[in-house]
Amino acid sequence: MIKLVFLGRLVDLAGGGEIDIAIAGPTPLEDLLLGLPAPLAEPLADPRVKLALNGRLVPRESLVVEAGDELAFLPPVSGG
Amino acid sequence: MTAHVRLLLAPFDPARETSEFTLRYPEAGGVVSFLGQVRAGGGCEALELSHYEPLTLPGMEGLAASALTRWQLDGLLIIHRAGVMLPGEPIVLVAAAARHRRDAFAAADFAMDHLKSESWFWKREKAGGQWRWIEPREEDRQDLSRWA
């Protein structure tokens, strides 16, 4: 299992702030997104959406997730 | 030079916080504070700020550390709310204590510009019973360029 965390308007698209999904071993980000419904996968693929893996910002390029990871999708912030 | 940085999920009393902060720094010649609150009017019924635990507070702490290296400060206070707030409720309080006023003004201004445009918060507003996400503002990004 991997935990996906959504922030901002992505929460509405995902139907909640978190979802757990099953993965079979190390999975590239592109493959992970392919397993999601298109109306959610499309906005998640937007390069303006930053990623945090286990609480640390990571680049999108060549990102691979593993079981037990927490991957957060962070859309542009709208300020305090 | 001490930073006091807090992320709160419940309302706070800005007057009490400012007063306690000021009392810590009798050697400061000046304390500049800024309070941001939920604007009443325009049909706004509530504001909600969401945050991401692993990034939001550490980001605010990093911002405070950067202000402390940039200006001669005795202390810097940053308090930010998350959760649901009603019109008139405080959202953010920044206070800077310094020997000389210009450092205090600049540090508070710097902290606010960065909180508004770079901090890990997502905002939505309730009006007419409907929640609506608020998009990033270009003005906030431009404000940030003042400090480049």
TrEMBL record, chain A:
Membrane-spanning ranges: none
Gene3D superfamilies noted in UniProt: 3.10.20.30
InterPro entries: Beta-grasp_dom_sf (IPR012675), Mopterin_synth/thiamin_S_b (IPR016155), ThiS/MoaD-like (IPR003749)
Entry protein name: MoaD/ThiS family protein
Source organism of this protein record: Novosphingobium aquae
Lineage: Bacteria, Pseudomonadati, Pseudomonadota, Alphaproteobacteria, Sphingomonadales
From TrEMBL, chain B:
Domain of life: Bacteria
EC number: 2.8.1.12
Catalytic activity field: 2 [molybdopterin-synthase sulfur-carrier protein]-C-terminal-Gly-aminoethanethioate + cyclic pyranopterin phosphate + H2O = molybdopterin + 2 [molybdopterin-synthase sulfur-carrier protein]-C-terminal Gly-Gly + 2 H(+)
Keyword Endoplasmic reticulum carried by entry: no
Keywords associated with the record: Molybdenum cofactor biosynthesis
Involved pathway(s): Cofactor biosynthesis; molybdopterin biosynthesis
InterPro entries, alphabetized: MoaE_sf, Mopterin_biosynth_MoaE
Family: Belongs to the MoaE family.
Subunit architecture: Heterotetramer of 2 MoaD subunits and 2 MoaE subunits. Also stable as homodimer. The enzyme changes between these two forms during catalysis.
Purpose of the protein: Converts molybdopterin precursor Z into molybdopterin. This requires the incorporation of two sulfur atoms into precursor Z to generate a dithiolene group. The sulfur is provided by MoaD.
Protein name: Molybdopterin synthase catalytic subunit
Organism: Novosphingobium aquae
